[in-house]
From TrEMBL:
This is Uncharacterized protein. The lineage of its organism: Eukaryota, Fungi, Dikarya, Basidiomycota, Agaricomycotina. Keywords: Membrane, Transmembrane, Transmembrane helix. The keyword Transmembrane applies. The chain crosses the membrane at residues 12-38, 58-82, 89-112, 154-175.
Amino acid sequence: MPYVRSRKFCCCLPVRFGVFCESILGIAVGGFFSVAAWLQINKFLHGQLKDLSQSDKIALWAVAATMTFAVVTSLLGLIGAIGRVRALVAIYASVLTGVTVLDIVGGIYFIYQLFHGYGDDQIQKCQAQADQGAPGTVDAEHWACSAGFKTGRIIVVVVYVIWWLIEIYGCVIAFEYVGQLREEEDASFSDREKNQSQNITIVTQPAAAFSQPQPYAFAAAPHSYGPEFKQEPL
C-alpha cells in the first residue's frame, strides 16, 4: 500500500486513534445516558413518576432516542476505525454531526427549562419546605435554596458547553479521518493503475516485432536476374 501522510489532532495524535477513542467514549457515555433515560421513561409509563410535566417527558424521550442512536453509530465508527472502512467512518461522522446538532438543540431547551420552568418550581418547593421549619432559620434556608439552585444551574451550563465543544471537535476528527482514508484509496488506485499499465506495455512489446517489414524473398541473389545471368543466343 502506498504511503499517505497520517493526519493529526492535538498536534501529535493520529486521527484514526481519535476516532477509535471517541467511538468507545460515545458507546460508554451514550450507553449510560440512554439506559438512565429509558429507566426514567419506564418509571413514568408505569405511573411511578407522576410529577413530570409534558415538556420533561418530551425531553426524556429525546435524550433516550438520541443517545441510543449515538451508541449504534459509535459502534459503526469503532468498526470502521479498526477495519479502515471509509464508508462506516463516513456514516459515523455524518450521524455524529447530526447528533451533535440535536444535542445542542436539546441542551438549549433543557437549560431554558432549567432557568424558566423546572428550576423555579424546585426553588418554590424548597422555600415552601423552609417555611415549615423553625422561624429563625427561614431566611437562611430561603437563601440556600436560591443560591444552591443558581450555582447548580451555572455548573450545568458549563458542563453542557464543554461537552458541546468536545462533540464539535470529535466531528472534525472524524471527517479528517474520512479524508485520510479517501487519500489512501486514491493513492492505492493510482498505484494499481500504474502497475496495470506497466504490465500491458510488457505484454505488447513482443507483438511489435511482427509489425516490422520483412525482406522480399525474390530479392535474394539466387532468385534475382543479376549480371551473372547470361541469356543463351537464339
